[in-house]
Amino acid sequence: MAGNEYEFCPSTNSAYDSAGCVRTRSSFDATRAKDDVSVPAEGAWRLRVAHRDAAANTDLANSTSPGPLRFDATPPSGEFEPFDPRDPSRIWLRASDATSGVARVEIEARSDGETAWHTLKVDGDAGSYSAVLDDALYPRGSYEVRARVFDRAENERSIMQTAQGTPLRVALPVRVETRMDAGRATKIRTNKRGKPKYKQVLDARPVVAFGRTTTVSGKVTDPAGNPRAGVVVDVLERVDAPARPWQAIGTVQTNAAGMFTFKVSKGASWTLRFSYGGSPTTQPASKEVELRVRAAATIAPDRRVRRNGDEVVFRGRVRSGPVPEAGKLVTLQALTRRGWTTFGNARARAKDGRWSYRYRFTGTTVRSRYTFRVVVPAESGYPYARGASKTTRVIVNP
């Protein structure tokens, strides 16, 4: 074998199409036993190789082909596109690569004074790409933006400019702020003298009685107070107990005035989170309402009339369950001239919430009527606020 005949043809050519084909040859001697050849230019090529003998015989029709060859030495090209006022937080990029095509796109942002770039999630293909610089996630300030475009040959180009040649910078926030207020509607007095005047406010930490439903109201507006009408607000709850997760319990929609209401079922103390997810032009907002439910309990004496020196057994039940496994401390109080005074403690059982306490009357010299109650104090792990029973009375004769 005296050498090789090579024919490079564009990969798009048909089997017998020689348009654009480039031929080259090589010769062997005692010092050269192999060839080094390169494709004629960037692009995709199909190579055919035929051997040539010493008599110069060769036949490309009977050649062999090592498979397609691709050569791309030019990085991709691209530019940032103008912002869409209907989606101002979205960054748009036009990118292409004429030879091997775009393999992937990375879009990053960093605020002034930072050295680290934040990678944004990129959507799109076929030359048009975008990413959201979320002004609810990133702090307010000025951000520079860059794109890194890679082709299939791993050539890379960094893009930081628009079509006009100016660096792309974004000042956050770009969307209109949203304000949300929520709570149980209640009236407060606004004047101290004269005829009472009241205004309605939303209490974000209301205290409610055990076993009653409660209505929570709210409003979604822009900074000027204009209503966000017809927007959906997600409602989540978390029971006031250790390791309890947030759970989605429903959605509400604002009316023409931006108002919404949500009825909370009876139960333990909750924290409610009302969350508006925002829109392409408006920021999200959320508000938490801590709904504290008073603990409930009963108290009754085994006798209503006793003599001085006799004992009375108070019994009752903690109604606001579940009661912790270790039981629930309750405090017994008597009404005196100085107010309610604690005279004993008992522990309610976990299985049924029942408790009892034995008390002896001493020092009663005249017929007296005593008033008692039981208080259920707040406690870690018990999802209720401090509550008290109705009062009960015992008459003690000297």
From TrEMBL:
Keyword Hydrolase: yes
Source domain of life: Bacteria
GO molecular function: carboxypeptidase activity
Gene3D superfamilies named among the record's database cross-references: Carboxypeptidase-like, regulatory domain (2.60.40.1120)
Name of the featured protein: Carboxypeptidase-like regulatory domain-containing protein
Keywords, ordered alphabetically: Carboxypeptidase, Hydrolase, Protease
